[in-house]
Structures are given as C-alpha cells and as structure tokens.
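Tutorial handout. Part one gives the primary structure; part two gives the three-dimensional structure as tokens.
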Amino acid sequence: METRKVQVTGGSTYTVSLPKEWATENDVSAGSVVEFHAEEDLLLLSPRRENGRVEGTLDISGLDEDHELTRAVMTMYVSGFDVITLETPRISPKQRRVVRDAVQGLVGLEVIEETSDRVVLQDLLDSSELSVHNAITRMQLVSLTMLADAIDALVEDDDDLAADVIHRDEDVDRLWYMVSRVFRTVLRNPTAATEIGFPRETVFDYQSSARQLERIADHATKIAELSREIDAISGETGEKLRTLREEAATVPETAMEALLADDSEAAVEQANQARGTIEDVDAMAREVDEQVREADPQSAQVLGLVVDSLSRTADYGGNIAESALQKAAPRP
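Part two.
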C-alpha cells in the first residue's frame, strides 16, 4: 500500500498523484484517460480501455481429449475473455467439433472465425445485457423442478422423464458458467458492476448461491440416473420419498426468497426459517433411510443414495441461507 497527500489546485480542485510503477505497468502516461468508480467510501481507479474487449489466446496443440479442450474453452470464458483465439499448427476435425459443442453450452459465445490453424470465439453479449438476478431465479426454478421430476421418475419407473431430467442439467450448467463469468468480470472491472446494477458484494452472494443451485441440479441428475437401476417403488416408501423431497426443497426455496428480498428484516427471518428446517429434514431422512434398508440389497443401496442426495439438497439450501444473512447484514 502506498499513500499520497491530497493537494488543492486552483483553490477548488483536489488532486492526487498516481504511483509511477502502477502507471507504467498499465500504460498510463501524460494525456491518458482514467476512470473513477465510486463505491460508498471507496474510489476505484482503472485505465480506460479503447474497445472494452478483453482478448486472450490459447495454444490447444496438446489438448486431444474431449474433456480437456472443453474445459479449456470454459475456463477462458469464465475468466472473462471476450475474444478467445484457439491456436495450433493444424486444427483437427475432432477439435473443431469439441469446440462447437463447448460453445453451445456457454451463453453468448459464438464462433466468428475459423482457419486451418485457429478458431476465434467471441462473446456477443455485454455485461449490461446479462441479468444475474434472472439467471439465479431461473436456476432455482429448473433445479428444483428437476429434483421433483427425478423423484417421480424413480417412484414411477419413468425412464423418459429421467432422461429429460438429465438433459435439463445442461441448462443449469449454462447459467452457472454465465454467473461465474459475470462475477469474475465484476472483480476485474468495476465498470461492469455499474452496468449490471448490483454491488460487487451482492454479485458474490449470487454467485455463491448459484453454485449451490448447480449442485442441487447435479443431485437431481444423480437421482434420475439411479432411477434406471431399479423398478417402480410402490406404497409407503414412494410416498415418503416424495414427502422428503418436498420438505428438503423448502430449504433452498425459502433461502432464495431471503437472498432476493429487499427488506433486511424479512430476509433474516426467512433465512433463519430455512436453516431451522434442516433439522426436520435430517430427522425425516433418517426415518426414510431406516425404512429403505428393509428392501432388497440392490434397491436398498440405490434408495440410500437417493435419501442422501435429498438430505444434501437441504444442506445446500442452508448455504444459500448463509449468503442471504451476509447480504442482509449491516455493512461496516
């Protein structure tokens, strides 16, 4: 940390000098234009970018495995690059296919140029067009609907419904990557926080909660996959699993209401209500777990994993409630 003394110029203008090392590293010199961003008692300074686009280049020569190349594209996207150039002496047809598939799973990203030795991707949306609020609201709706449908698929032995649940996980992932991208962009560029209309702390709370919703969707997918391993579940066990799912889902539902509430007192009340429900879910989960153990060994193992996923859903909701409490707390 460096300190500077504030000077008065012309009797009414406050001035302060910039650290030379910082100015040199960021190409700031006499005549350069810089931007100031006010955040309550903070004043953030950043160089003005000419075109506002952040460009990055990645050598994909050694990335032959599908998951490695997919992960590389997603990492560049989440890191906040607006223009991504993928280079190698010669791009194989398989690499082109993997890149196109990866692009389909990322909001706003498109292939804008292809040659024999490179593929250029560009994010066609700017921060002002992305709503983190709408994204996490959509994630909540999709993930909890997936969970309900996964239990129905399990109880009714509906393989088509299970397949649909598994497919919907891609929608949640797309929104999760978008929220993560906006979060990292806001950390790097204070202007982005102004454009999307939320303080950076709020974006952090939303990103943390989006992660929990993404995990709920993953467990819904897991239940849908497990449902294919056993036949339909009839009688009391099926009804108890549905009841447990309903009780577990109330935790993230109530926690999300707290997170998105404008009134701090209401948010604290709802968050504490969500956290208090977790004990009831755990007690119910233990009861259901004891009952499913009476089934045949294969069914008992599968249903035990399902009960665990429902219990974890409540825990993830508790994590969202913690974020809601932090968001509602007074700022120092």
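Part three, for discussion. The mean pLDDT is 90. Residues 166 and 221 are 5 Å apart (CA to CA).
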